[in-house]
Amino acid sequence: MSPAQASAAAAAQTASRQQSNGSASTSDAAKADRLSDSKTPVQDTIRRKLTAALAPARLEIYDDSAQHAGHAGSRMQAGYSGETHFRIEVASPAFEGLKTLKQHRLVYDVR
Q1: Domain residue limits at 14
Q2: Cβ contacts of residue 71 below 8 Å, gap of 6+?
């Protein structure tokens, strides 16, 4: 199982557990289902994590995977989605007053 598949499976299991405990709303369960069925699970995860951490005013995610097809680093590591390389543009109030390096560190520290 690839990391992307494992992540989707874990999200589905969590939603299933919460639903059986009665702690998840219908929209939470539906959201987990949409993510697990997504054709772009890696991009969806990046968007979700950056949005939660930075509350961006603007967030653009570009999938550049096709430009890297065939490179050694892209082979067999993207799982079923083929997503390996991304470029993002993000504007956030969290960046206010920070130098560019610190802004980059904020983005890279998102887990």
Answers
A1: 1-37
A2: none
Burial call 19-31: b when 16+ CB within 10 Å, e when fewer: eeeeebeeeeeee
* Residue 11 · residue 36 · CB < 8 Å: yes
3-state secondary structure of 90: strand
Confirm if 105 and 65 have CB atoms less than 8 A apart.
Answer: no
The per-residue pLDDT for range 2-61, each reduced to its tens digit, is: 444 444 444 444 343 433 444 444 455 455 545 567 889 999 999 999 999 999 999 999
Same domain membership, residue 105 and residue 67: yes
pTM here is 0.62
